[in-house]
UniProtKB/TrEMBL annotation:
Keywords: ATP-binding, Cell inner membrane, Cell membrane, Membrane, Nucleotide-binding, Translocase, Transport
GO molecular function terms noted in the UniProt entry: ATP binding; ATP hydrolysis activity
Organism expressing this protein natively: Agromyces rhizosphaerae
Listed Pfam families: ABC_tran (PF00005)
Subcellular location as annotated: Cell membrane
Membrane topology category: Peripheral membrane protein
ABC transporter domain location: 8-259
Official protein name in the record: ABC transporter domain-containing protein
GO cellular component, one term: plasma membrane
Family, similarity comment: Belongs to the ABC transporter superfamily.
Length: 274
């Protein structure tokens, strides 16, 4: 098994509008197994387009104009993501990769209990599981994300925003994916809740060994949670290095500008999460 989970080569995406928008330009990167890779950059630099594009989650007018994405499965198989047909793609998205969207906690069904909604994931994607096995798996998930099994019969409105977002993380974790893509997963939450959840994501990836692509414009937050950070500007990755290196010795002028735009409250990088 290689220590690379996902290889992206010369990946480009254009929004075919008038005039066309070149949202991602010739991006190449290797995501390592078990790492948290932060994707940072100003609004509109192409973070979301890149992260969705490598999973082929983009819809028209987005067009992938160039590039190759290979997923190095834990089984040893190399999966050429661009070559998957619609059925294979659906399975790939649930089994291998999962996504936590910005504001995902508001996408829970308001009239179903969270237990039932988690149960649904197994019912659809693991048809071989019995009712009892599904229930046990849901209880386990609720414990893992620290929502607690006693919330099994709660409705979304009975939970805080942070708890609901934990339920979404449980859902993303359900089928034990090898990659989790998180797009501003904690932006809507207050800082303390946000930190708690981030700490937990970091612990879970150690426990379960999945990799995380974490998208946010909040660079200080990325410095704390990420192993490596890719800085994007105008569709390109201008710098990709360890969080320590980005903080202590940024190479690119734009990275420096981006760092300077955040106040250094302590003068030191607070590595509280690792
Ligand atoms: N459906 C679309 N049609 C046309 N242009 C689009 C579309 N979606 C995104 N874009 C453009 O593509 C570029 C990259 O957008 P993208 O959303 O990937 O950036 P981002 O870095 O994720 O920004 P944000 O942090 O605001 O989500 C931007 O110039 C944006 O305006």
């Amino acid at each position: 098994m290689t220590d690379t989970l996902l290889s992206v080569r010369d990946f480009s995406v254009v929004y075919d509008v008038d005039p066309p928008v070149q949202a991602v330009r010739d991006v190449s990167l290797d995501l390592k197994r078990g790492e948290i890779l932060g994707l940072a950059g100003e609004s509109g630099c192409g973070k979301t387009t890149l992260a969705y594009g490598v999973q082929r989650l983009l819809k028209a007018p987005a067009v992938i104009t160039n590039g190759r994405v290979v997923f190095h499965d834990a089984s040893g198989e190399d999966i050429d993501v661009n070559a998957l047909d619609a059925d294979e793609m659906r399975r790939f998205r649930w089994d291998k990769v999962s996504m936590v969207f910005q504001g995902a906690m508001n996408s829970l069904n308001p009239v179903a209990t969270i237990g039932a909604q988690l149960d649904d994931v197994f019912e659809v994607h693991r048809p071989g599981m019995s009712k009892g096995e599904r229930r046990a798996a849901v209880v386990e998930l609720l414990e893992i994300v620290k929502v607690g099994a006693q919330r099994y019969r709660s409705y979304p409105h009975e939970l805080s925003g942070g708890m609901r977002q934990r339920v979404m993380i449980a859902m993303a974790l359900a089928l034990r994916p090898q990659l989790m893509v998180m797009d501003e997963p904690t932006t809507a939450l207050d800082v303390l809740v946000q930190r708690e959840i981030l700490k937990q994501i970091s612990a879970l990836r150690h426990e379960f060994g999945f990799s995380v692509v974490f998208i946010t414009h909040d660079l200080p937050l990325l410095l704390e949670i990420s192993d490596r950070i890719a800085i994007m500007r105008d569709g390109r990755i201008v710098e990709l290095a360890t969080a320590e290196r980005i903080w202590n010795d940024p190479q690119d002028a734009y990275t420096k500008t981006l760092l300077e735009s955040f106040p250094r409250l302590t003068g030191e990088k607070g590595m509280v999460l690792r």
